Amino acid sequence: MIIYDSKKWNSLFTTLFKTYKYSYNMRQLLRFIFYTTLYAISATLLNMHYLADLYQIDTDFFSLIGVILSLFLVFRLNSGYYRWWEGRKAWGALVNDSRSLSLKLDSIIPIEDMNKRRYFGRHISNFCMSLVLHLRDSTDLNKYHLEKSDKADEIAEFKHHPNKFGSKLFRELEAMHKNNNISDFDKYFCNKLVQRFIDTLGTCERIKKTPIPFSHSTFIKLFIVIYIIILPFGLANVFGYLTIPAVMVMAFAMIGIEVISEEIENPFGTDANDLPIGFITDTITENVFEVLGIDHEIGYTAKKYSLAEEAEIIH
Fold this sequence. Notes:
Belongs to the anion channel-forming bestrophin (TC 1.A.46) family. This is Membrane protein. It is found in: Cell membrane. Its main location: membrane. There is one protein chain. It contains eleven helices and two strands, in the order E-H-H-H-H-H-H-H-H-H-H-H-E. The protein is mainly alpha-helical. It has a two-stranded parallel ribbon with strand order 1-2. Helix 3 (59-108) packs antiparallel against helix 4 and helix 3 (59-108) packs parallel to helix 10. The protein is elongated and about 90 Å long. The model has no long low-confidence stretch (mean pLDDT 84).
């Protein structure tokens, strides 16, 4: 994710230049605009010097088609942003649920029982980190807080790591209840929070594995291409050589919306505008360890996501 100051209008172009190498949509958009410009130049010259007397397209036609296309593009952008925002809400809920679970466990686990505190602290963190790796199709065991008792080989063989760590939390709560270490209500409350972890997992998987319908996305792309192809032949007789920048501006707006929507519809990757879920997980880990009092008791060397890895800060 690119972190920037939205109030600095005077540094807009500097910011765009700095973000070029980080932003997929900017590189893709400029590539499209380059080819569109070449086409606009060719079509404008062809129309003005060879086809001007053969036909003339009324510009009202393009106004009507433009209105229809704009409605499709608004829907496309809203559908992409809704997925991005739903992903952010899911991770916000995971942050809150992790804190709530750690606060509850802090109140029911004796301060001197550091083994239990370490166990829950590690696996709350491991669940969140496994969700990051799961959504990014990665399996880096170095990101987990593991001890010898965790049997790293067993975890590595498990295909769905979030399920594995969720199971560990449920099993430990059940064992504590059987040993009368927690009451029925405490077990119910903690189980409910862990269940919400699983609900967040399901929400994120749904967003990732359910792309925008193929026909919907393809139709909009095809509509944009057809509109840009015929646009110079309708504007050349009115705008002359100004048709070239006019087509560039129209292409920038329409293709830009489509490219932005493509990037944000899966917000869990590592593109410039994706969510910094690795950094969010490190924040959860720090909060949980601090609440359970194990931040100085435990010397784990799990590899963290730094803010620099997850976000580019533009001043």
